[in-house]
Amino acid sequence: MDLIAQSIVIGLTEHGPLVLAAMGFALLYRLTGLINVAFAETVTLGAYIGMWINTTFGLTFWLAIWPAAIAAGLISVATYFAVFRPAKRRDVGMLEMIIMSFGLSIVLRYSLQFVFGYGFVYYDVPAQQGWRVFDVGVSRIKSVSLVIVVVLALVLFWFIQKTEMGQKIRALASDEKLAQVSGINPLAVTVMVWFIAGVAGGLAGAFYGVGQGFKYTLGWDQFLFIMLVMLVGGAKNIRGVIIAGLGTGIVISALSLWLKDTQVATVILIALFMAYLKVRQRSLVEGKV
Amino acid sequence: MSTDWLSSALVFGLFEVVMYIGMGFLLHMQLGLAGIGNFGVVGFWGLGMYAYGIIYGGHAPSGTDLIIDIPWPFGDPWQAIASVILATLVAGLGGLLIGWIISGMDLDGQLVGTFGFAAIVFLLARSQKGLTGSEGGIGGLDFPYDIGSEKANAMLWLLVASAIVIAIGYYTWRVHRSPYGRLLIATGQNEPLARSLGKPSNLTKLWMFTVTSAGMGLLGAMFAVIVHFLTPLKLGVDVTLAVIVALILGGAARVWGPVIGVLLTVGLFEIVVQLYAPFPDSWYRQAMPVVKQIIYGMSLIVVLMYRPLGILGDMRRDKLMRSIHGD
Q1: Which of A77, A197, B191, B299 has the most CB atoms within 10 Å of its CB?
Q2: What ipTM was predicted for this assembly?
């Protein structure tokens, strides 16, 4: 029983940002149908820019994350205009687009090394006091981060499902030509989606980065799980992504506590995800779903 | 004939060029012919590399044995040859498993399956102290012969690797001209159509993926011998990146594509820049590897945007068909 309670606490506080990142990634995937590998670097950028604002201008973490998120959103839009929009206009195939996004991911990741250095960097945050919940130490910054992640996830969910802009996004994702005929400006909506995805990724990066050292591989290290959560949760189902994200955090914490080895726990979870995707694919082929 | 001009660093650089050409041939069959996006090349290569180290009887740096200790009834070179063969089979089994998982899946599934496999191999290499030596790695993997100096041994190993890569290249060339290869190309270009004509597209792709993954494992095992020492740091994404960049740059649809691509990328950086460019020593430690990766990444974007078929362009048969029938 203790294991379950502790897994929930650790899973939510340590892996909460995964939900936010996976939602941003899913939004992008839903609109473009593209697995954008460079999204990993949006996460890293959010962490780095937040750290830079925090340490250079002396802003607290809570103030630094917002300009960092906006900057990550703008960079996400810039990658759309610099790479993905021209590629779409040139009718580049989907496999080639994924490879291009892989290339972009590499360019951004290694360029960050020139800007922010090769080693670990840290946010300048005061020594953390916290609470013990089910015998697990939880810092105040992680607790507040979790609350913000939950609120932002709910706002994003509400935005996509309930607002007029969300309706436009879903319409454009379903049928671009029909959406255009209906008076939706595809460019404006597309730019909005790339921006929101970047903001979500950037915020997730800042929450991942705070309270520990991080380096240029931060987003890349999380990317496989972001992708798996999105695919398992169902790219067209934001609610599914939230549940899969939360579930992933809790399960990996439970496995880590049980096995006392985070890396083996990660291996098992990746294998479980792959097995699930295979079973689902076979069910689809056999018409069971 | 004097070989004084061949430094040990140059021999190693040439080995890397040869190895990447072999990997390029194999990825060419997966990506260029069958249209399978393998983003986990390093996983199959790394599995072969580590399998060799474990099976051959490598040991942790402290000198302690690993869990698996095969009592070989014979010594080198047969021990090394048997280990290379077994490592190739292990990588082939990995390819069979992942090939089965991603069969019938779309590009997203292929990306997750191959990428996830590479992550699993990396994590196991880093965490299983008794099996892989974890961060400390596996040592004690010397050449299976001694013909004098370290450089002479490395040169002979380079020749062996070259012979293997020539054989892989010949196999690739034969595949292009065989009914099996035509089926692969048809499957890669339009799988539903190939299946509707009664062709066993899934089985054909699965077999090809298994064989080519085994080939990647074979080259990983060859690499294990020349580096003598394995650590998880060798399982970075840069291996996958180098093979993909070379293939895309040279031309994914052409047999000679990987050769041209590797010469222009790995050859340029690992030999020309690394050994002959007049840059300060400090650049080589941190800046140069980073610049290399940035240039590789940019090459992928630029080539796919402006010349998606790479330097060599489309397949000859497609060119011929277009000249006959028009676009």
Answers
A1: A197
A2: 0.89
